[in-house]
Write a structure and sequence with these properties.
It comes from Mucilaginibacter glaciei. Keywords: Cell cycle, Cell division, Chromosome partition, Cytoplasm. This is SMC-Scp complex subunit ScpB. There is one protein chain. With 186 residues, this protein is of the alpha+beta class. It has two domains: 74 residues, Winged helix-like DNA-binding domain superfamily/Winged helix DNA-binding domain (Arc Repressor Mutant, subunit A, Orthogonal Bundle); 81 residues, Orthogonal Bundle (Arc Repressor Mutant, subunit A), CATH 1.10.10.10. 48% of the residues lie in helices and 13% in strands. A hairpin with a 7-residue loop joins strand 4 and strand 5. The longest helix has 14 residues.
Length: 186
């Protein structure tokens, strides 16, 4: 049998999003008609992760959103951000970013709730976020009219490099007090 770790590496590399251990296990069992265990796959993944910790590699294998992905190491982020800036033709508008932030922090949330917070119609922003697969429809509210509920998607988690919404910065950590009037009372 060929080196199983190379097949696992190939699966992680070829996956557009994080690939879960269960998916790797399924692919390998189907390809080789061999009953691998989840523990064996985890051991092989850990070996691959250790291999890419070497400084000679610009990439590493990280676990994000319960899946594994090849990502560049942090010390190369400045260089890569320049490339992304150059290629950023599909940026999110300020309105879409605001809508995405509301959905991320208030999910599950209805369009009406978002519009009450923003004070403007959000149809276009929600449509664009759905097209980019950064948000998803998570169900219907039990309130009158049963409006659609929105929440963040797995792609949102991948894009922002978080495993769970609780890993996002807390609102108190990012509050800007520079627009207050007067001096704070002692």
């Amino acid at each position: 049998m060929e080196n199983i770790e190379q097949h696992i590496e190939a699966l992680i590399f070829a996956s557009e999003q994080g690939i879960r251990t269960e998916e790797i296990l399924y692919c390998l069992q189907a390809a080789f008609e061999h009953d691998y265990t989840s523990d064996e796959i985890t051991t092989h993944i850990n070996n691959i992760r250790a291999k890419y910790q070497d400084e000679s590699f610009a990439v590493e294998v990280l676990k994000i959103n319960n899946g594994f992905q090849f990502l560049t190491k942090k010390k190369y982020h400045t260089t890569i951000s320049l490339l992304q800036l150059q290629r950023s033709k599909k940026k999110l508008s300020q309105a879409a970013l605001e809508t995405l932030a509301i959905i991320a922090y208030k999910q599950p949330v209805t369009k009406t709730d978002i519009e009450q917070i923003r004070g403007v119609n959000c149809d276009y922003s929600i449509q664009k976020l759905l097209e980019k697969e950064l948000i998803a429809i998570t169900g219907k509210s039990e309130s009158v009219g049963k409006p659609i509920l929105y929440g963040t998607s797995g792609l949102f988690m991948d894009y922002f490099g978080v495993n769970d919404i609780s890993e996002l910065p807390q609102l108190k950590d990012i509050t800007d007090n520079s627009s207050t009037i007067g001096q704070a009372a002692e």
